[in-house]
Amino acid sequence: MPKIKTLLLFTNNYPANYGDTSFIEPEAEALSKAYDLVYVVRFSNQANDSNITMPSNFHLIELGLTNRLNIVFKGLFNKTSIFQTYQLLWQERQYIKKISHLKNLFFATLLGRYFASKLNPLLQNNQMDFDAYLFWGMGSGYSLPWLKHKKLNKVWMRLHGGDLYLDRQNGYIPFRLNMLNNVDSIVPISLQGANYLQTTYPTYNFNQKIFVNYLGSLDYGIASTAPKQPHFVIVSCSSIIPLKRIELIYQSILLASKTIKIHWHHFGDGVGMSDLKKSINSQPNHENLTINLHGQTPHRQIIEFYQSGHVDLFINLSETEGI
User: Fold this and answer.
1) pTM score of the predicted model
2) Are 234 and 313 in contact (CB under 8 A)?
3) Which residue among 37, 39, 188, 292 is least crowded, i.e. fewest CB within 10 A of its CB?
4) Contact 19, 47 (CB under 8 A)
Protein backbone atom coordinates (compact mmCIF):
# COMPACT_ATOMS: atom_id res chain seq x y z
CA MET A 1 0.00 0.00 0.00
CA PRO A 2 1.57 3.37 -1.02
CA LYS A 3 2.30 5.86 1.72
CA ILE A 4 0.21 9.00 2.07
CA LYS A 5 2.06 11.87 0.40
CA THR A 6 2.16 14.51 3.14
CA LEU A 7 3.42 18.08 3.38
CA LEU A 8 4.25 20.13 6.48
CA LEU A 9 3.54 23.75 5.52
CA PHE A 10 5.10 26.26 7.95
CA THR A 11 3.47 29.71 7.95
CA ASN A 12 3.29 32.82 10.09
CA ASN A 13 -0.43 33.56 9.78
CA TYR A 14 -2.12 31.37 7.14
CA PRO A 15 -4.98 30.48 7.22
CA ALA A 16 -5.82 33.55 9.33
CA ASN A 17 -7.43 36.28 7.27
CA TYR A 18 -4.36 38.53 7.25
CA GLY A 19 -0.58 38.53 6.91
CA ASP A 20 1.02 35.94 4.64
CA THR A 21 -2.36 34.41 3.73
CA SER A 22 -2.63 36.66 0.67
CA PHE A 23 0.62 35.11 -0.64
CA ILE A 24 -0.01 31.51 0.39
CA GLU A 25 -3.64 31.23 -0.69
CA PRO A 26 -2.80 31.22 -4.44
CA GLU A 27 -0.25 28.44 -3.82
CA ALA A 28 -2.60 26.37 -1.66
CA GLU A 29 -4.62 25.05 -4.60
CA ALA A 30 -1.50 23.72 -6.31
CA LEU A 31 -0.22 22.18 -3.07
CA SER A 32 -3.57 20.50 -2.45
CA LYS A 33 -3.26 18.75 -5.80
CA ALA A 34 0.38 17.74 -5.31
CA TYR A 35 -0.18 16.15 -1.87
CA ASP A 36 -2.71 13.80 -0.34
CA LEU A 37 -2.51 15.65 2.96
CA VAL A 38 -1.15 19.05 4.02
CA TYR A 39 -0.55 19.94 7.68
CA VAL A 40 -0.39 23.70 8.25
CA VAL A 41 1.92 24.71 11.10
CA ARG A 42 1.47 28.40 11.83
CA PHE A 43 3.41 30.55 14.24
CA SER A 44 0.79 33.17 15.12
CA ASN A 45 -2.31 32.11 17.01
CA GLN A 46 -4.55 34.94 18.16
CA ALA A 47 -7.79 34.09 19.95
CA ASN A 48 -9.87 36.33 17.69
CA ASP A 49 -8.40 35.09 14.41
CA SER A 50 -10.89 34.33 11.67
CA ASN A 51 -9.64 31.79 9.16
CA ILE A 52 -10.24 31.53 5.44
CA THR A 53 -11.52 28.28 3.94
CA MET A 54 -8.63 25.97 3.13
CA PRO A 55 -8.60 23.13 0.58
CA SER A 56 -10.35 20.03 1.91
CA ASN A 57 -7.11 18.06 2.39
CA PHE A 58 -5.48 20.85 4.46
CA HIS A 59 -5.45 20.50 8.25
CA LEU A 60 -4.39 23.20 10.69
CA ILE A 61 -2.20 22.12 13.59
CA GLU A 62 -2.90 24.67 16.32
CA LEU A 63 0.57 25.07 17.83
CA GLY A 64 0.69 28.87 17.98
CA LEU A 65 2.09 30.65 21.00
CA THR A 66 0.14 33.56 22.44
CA ASN A 67 2.58 35.45 24.70
CA ARG A 68 6.19 35.54 25.89
CA LEU A 69 5.53 33.66 29.13
CA ASN A 70 3.78 30.97 27.12
CA ILE A 71 6.81 30.71 24.81
CA VAL A 72 9.27 30.42 27.71
CA PHE A 73 7.27 27.76 29.55
CA LYS A 74 6.49 25.57 26.53
CA GLY A 75 9.93 26.08 25.02
CA LEU A 76 11.74 24.93 28.15
CA PHE A 77 9.50 22.12 29.35
CA ASN A 78 9.10 19.58 26.57
CA LYS A 79 10.65 16.31 25.43
CA THR A 80 13.00 17.72 22.79
CA SER A 81 16.56 16.46 23.23
CA ILE A 82 18.62 18.51 25.68
CA PHE A 83 21.85 17.11 24.18
CA GLN A 84 20.81 18.13 20.67
CA THR A 85 19.95 21.60 21.98
CA TYR A 86 23.39 21.85 23.58
CA GLN A 87 25.06 20.85 20.28
CA LEU A 88 23.12 23.46 18.32
CA LEU A 89 23.85 26.24 20.81
CA TRP A 90 27.54 25.32 20.83
CA GLN A 91 27.62 25.63 17.03
CA GLU A 92 25.93 29.04 17.22
CA ARG A 93 28.33 30.54 19.77
CA GLN A 94 30.73 31.84 17.10
CA TYR A 95 28.05 34.06 15.53
CA ILE A 96 26.98 35.79 18.76
CA LYS A 97 28.47 39.28 18.80
CA LYS A 98 25.94 41.30 20.82
CA ILE A 99 23.54 40.89 23.71
CA SER A 100 20.67 41.27 21.25
CA HIS A 101 22.01 38.26 19.31
CA LEU A 102 21.90 36.18 22.48
CA LYS A 103 18.30 37.22 23.12
CA ASN A 104 17.32 36.28 19.57
CA LEU A 105 19.03 32.91 19.92
CA PHE A 106 17.24 32.21 23.21
CA PHE A 107 13.86 33.07 21.66
CA ALA A 108 14.54 30.97 18.54
CA THR A 109 15.65 28.02 20.68
CA LEU A 110 12.45 28.09 22.69
CA LEU A 111 10.37 28.24 19.52
CA GLY A 112 12.32 25.50 17.78
CA ARG A 113 12.20 23.11 20.71
CA TYR A 114 8.48 23.58 21.28
CA PHE A 115 7.38 23.19 17.66
CA ALA A 116 9.69 20.21 17.14
CA SER A 117 8.31 18.51 20.28
CA LYS A 118 4.86 18.61 18.69
CA LEU A 119 5.91 17.63 15.17
CA ASN A 120 8.43 14.84 15.72
CA PRO A 121 5.76 12.38 16.99
CA LEU A 122 3.81 13.07 13.79
CA LEU A 123 6.90 12.33 11.71
CA GLN A 124 7.03 8.85 13.28
CA ASN A 125 3.88 7.86 11.38
CA ASN A 126 5.20 5.24 8.99
CA GLN A 127 2.06 5.40 6.86
CA MET A 128 3.04 8.90 5.66
CA ASP A 129 5.71 10.18 3.30
CA PHE A 130 6.75 13.68 4.48
CA ASP A 131 8.05 16.81 2.73
CA ALA A 132 8.35 20.24 4.36
CA TYR A 133 7.82 23.74 2.99
CA LEU A 134 8.93 26.67 5.15
CA PHE A 135 7.27 29.80 3.80
CA TRP A 136 9.59 31.85 6.04
CA GLY A 137 13.12 31.32 7.30
CA MET A 138 12.07 32.26 10.84
CA GLY A 139 9.12 31.75 13.20
CA SER A 140 7.81 28.19 13.28
CA GLY A 141 10.60 27.34 10.82
CA TYR A 142 13.06 27.50 13.73
CA SER A 143 11.94 23.95 14.51
CA LEU A 144 13.86 22.67 11.47
CA PRO A 145 17.18 22.03 13.30
CA TRP A 146 15.32 19.81 15.81
CA LEU A 147 13.12 17.89 13.37
CA LYS A 148 13.93 14.28 12.56
CA HIS A 149 15.44 14.93 9.13
CA LYS A 150 15.59 11.29 8.12
CA LYS A 151 11.79 11.38 8.05
CA LEU A 152 11.71 14.31 5.63
CA ASN A 153 12.25 13.63 1.93
CA LYS A 154 12.43 17.18 0.59
CA VAL A 155 12.61 20.52 2.41
CA TRP A 156 12.04 23.90 0.73
CA MET A 157 12.58 27.26 2.44
CA ARG A 158 11.39 30.59 1.03
CA LEU A 159 13.32 33.73 1.96
CA HIS A 160 11.92 37.24 1.65
CA GLY A 161 13.41 40.30 3.38
CA GLY A 162 13.41 40.27 7.16
CA ASP A 163 14.16 36.55 7.18
CA LEU A 164 17.04 36.91 4.72
CA TYR A 165 19.06 40.12 5.11
CA LEU A 166 21.17 40.11 8.26
CA ASP A 167 21.17 43.91 8.58
CA ARG A 168 17.39 43.76 8.95
CA GLN A 169 17.90 41.62 12.07
CA ASN A 170 20.74 43.55 13.70
CA GLY A 171 23.37 41.34 12.05
CA TYR A 172 22.18 37.92 13.19
CA ILE A 173 19.52 35.33 12.34
CA PRO A 174 19.60 32.27 14.64
CA PHE A 175 20.50 28.89 13.13
CA ARG A 176 20.89 30.48 9.70
CA LEU A 177 23.68 28.25 8.38
CA ASN A 178 22.23 25.14 9.99
CA MET A 179 18.91 25.74 8.22
CA LEU A 180 20.48 26.64 4.88
CA ASN A 181 22.57 23.47 5.00
CA ASN A 182 19.59 21.26 5.90
CA VAL A 183 17.15 22.29 3.19
CA ASP A 184 17.09 20.85 -0.31
CA SER A 185 15.99 24.09 -1.99
CA ILE A 186 16.51 27.71 -0.93
CA VAL A 187 13.83 29.82 -2.58
CA PRO A 188 14.47 33.59 -2.43
CA ILE A 189 11.76 35.79 -3.93
CA SER A 190 14.19 37.91 -5.96
CA LEU A 191 17.45 37.77 -7.90
CA GLN A 192 18.84 40.26 -5.41
CA GLY A 193 18.11 37.76 -2.64
CA ALA A 194 19.86 34.98 -4.54
CA ASN A 195 22.92 37.18 -5.11
CA TYR A 196 22.94 38.14 -1.44
CA LEU A 197 23.06 34.50 -0.39
CA GLN A 198 25.93 33.77 -2.76
CA THR A 199 28.02 36.77 -1.67
CA THR A 200 27.26 36.46 2.06
CA TYR A 201 28.13 32.76 2.24
CA PRO A 202 30.77 32.35 -0.50
CA THR A 203 32.44 29.32 1.07
CA TYR A 204 29.21 27.30 1.06
CA ASN A 205 28.03 25.65 -2.12
CA PHE A 206 24.47 26.93 -2.02
CA ASN A 207 24.36 27.74 -5.75
CA GLN A 208 23.14 24.26 -6.62
CA LYS A 209 20.01 24.61 -4.50
CA ILE A 210 19.07 28.30 -4.88
CA PHE A 211 15.94 28.70 -6.95
CA VAL A 212 14.41 32.16 -7.45
CA ASN A 213 10.61 32.10 -7.32
CA TYR A 214 8.77 35.42 -7.37
CA LEU A 215 5.80 36.15 -5.17
CA GLY A 216 2.77 37.40 -7.02
CA SER A 217 -0.94 37.17 -7.51
CA LEU A 218 -3.32 35.43 -9.82
CA ASP A 219 -4.78 37.69 -12.49
CA TYR A 220 -8.21 38.58 -11.13
CA GLY A 221 -8.76 41.34 -13.66
CA ILE A 222 -9.34 45.04 -13.04
CA ALA A 223 -12.25 47.40 -13.55
CA SER A 224 -11.13 48.71 -16.94
CA THR A 225 -14.65 49.92 -17.76
CA ALA A 226 -15.38 51.51 -14.38
CA PRO A 227 -16.27 55.21 -14.72
CA LYS A 228 -13.51 57.67 -13.90
CA GLN A 229 -14.11 59.58 -10.70
CA PRO A 230 -14.25 63.38 -10.40
CA HIS A 231 -11.24 63.14 -8.08
CA PHE A 232 -7.85 61.45 -8.45
CA VAL A 233 -8.01 58.01 -6.78
CA ILE A 234 -4.83 56.78 -5.07
CA VAL A 235 -4.47 53.38 -3.41
CA SER A 236 -1.78 51.99 -1.10
CA CYS A 237 -1.73 48.53 0.47
CA SER A 238 0.71 47.40 3.16
CA SER A 239 1.28 47.07 6.87
CA ILE A 240 1.57 50.40 8.68
CA ILE A 241 5.09 49.92 9.99
CA PRO A 242 8.22 52.14 9.73
CA LEU A 243 9.57 50.12 6.77
CA LYS A 244 6.52 50.99 4.64
CA ARG A 245 6.63 54.77 5.31
CA ILE A 246 2.85 55.31 5.15
CA GLU A 247 3.28 58.66 6.90
CA LEU A 248 5.39 59.80 3.95
CA ILE A 249 2.64 58.69 1.57
CA TYR A 250 0.17 60.78 3.54
CA GLN A 251 2.41 63.86 3.56
CA SER A 252 2.99 63.51 -0.21
CA ILE A 253 -0.71 63.19 -0.94
CA LEU A 254 -1.51 66.09 1.38
CA LEU A 255 0.92 68.27 -0.58
CA ALA A 256 -0.55 67.18 -3.92
CA SER A 257 -4.09 67.86 -2.70
CA LYS A 258 -3.35 71.58 -2.66
CA THR A 259 -3.81 71.58 -6.43
CA ILE A 260 -6.09 68.59 -7.21
CA LYS A 261 -8.91 66.71 -5.51
CA ILE A 262 -7.69 63.33 -4.21
CA HIS A 263 -9.36 60.28 -2.72
CA TRP A 264 -6.81 58.10 -0.90
CA HIS A 265 -7.56 54.50 0.10
CA HIS A 266 -5.13 52.61 2.32
CA PHE A 267 -5.52 48.89 3.04
CA GLY A 268 -3.56 47.51 5.98
CA ASP A 269 -2.95 48.01 9.68
CA GLY A 270 -0.01 47.97 12.04
CA VAL A 271 1.81 49.62 14.91
CA GLY A 272 1.83 52.98 13.14
CA MET A 273 -1.94 53.29 12.67
CA SER A 274 -2.48 55.36 15.82
CA ASP A 275 0.24 57.86 14.94
CA LEU A 276 -1.01 58.10 11.35
CA LYS A 277 -4.52 58.94 12.55
CA LYS A 278 -3.10 61.57 14.92
CA SER A 279 -1.15 63.11 12.06
CA ILE A 280 -4.25 63.19 9.86
CA ASN A 281 -6.43 64.67 12.60
CA SER A 282 -3.86 67.36 13.33
CA GLN A 283 -4.41 68.89 9.89
CA PRO A 284 -7.17 71.50 10.07
CA ASN A 285 -8.10 71.40 6.40
CA HIS A 286 -8.58 68.44 4.07
CA GLU A 287 -10.82 70.31 1.65
CA ASN A 288 -9.41 68.55 -1.43
CA LEU A 289 -8.55 65.26 0.27
CA THR A 290 -10.77 62.33 1.25
CA ILE A 291 -9.08 59.55 3.22
CA ASN A 292 -10.27 55.98 3.77
CA LEU A 293 -8.12 53.92 6.13
CA HIS A 294 -9.67 50.50 5.59
CA GLY A 295 -7.47 48.74 8.15
CA GLN A 296 -6.75 45.02 7.94
CA THR A 297 -8.79 43.81 4.97
CA PRO A 298 -9.26 40.26 3.66
CA HIS A 299 -7.43 39.65 0.38
CA ARG A 300 -10.65 38.82 -1.48
CA GLN A 301 -12.22 42.13 -0.47
CA ILE A 302 -9.21 44.03 -1.78
CA ILE A 303 -9.49 42.19 -5.10
CA GLU A 304 -13.20 43.05 -5.23
CA PHE A 305 -12.28 46.70 -4.66
CA TYR A 306 -9.90 46.66 -7.63
CA GLN A 307 -12.47 44.88 -9.78
CA SER A 308 -15.36 47.20 -9.03
CA GLY A 309 -13.97 50.74 -9.13
CA HIS A 310 -11.64 53.09 -10.97
CA VAL A 311 -8.12 53.63 -9.59
CA ASP A 312 -5.70 56.20 -11.02
CA LEU A 313 -2.55 55.38 -9.09
CA PHE A 314 -1.10 52.70 -6.84
CA ILE A 315 1.65 54.09 -4.59
CA ASN A 316 4.41 52.39 -2.59
CA LEU A 317 7.16 54.26 -0.70
CA SER A 318 8.77 51.39 1.23
CA GLU A 319 12.38 51.81 2.26
CA THR A 320 13.02 48.50 0.51
CA GLU A 321 11.00 45.84 -1.27
CA GLY A 322 11.81 42.18 -1.82
CA ILE A 323 11.55 42.38 -5.60
Assistant:
1) 0.86
2) yes
3) 292
4) no
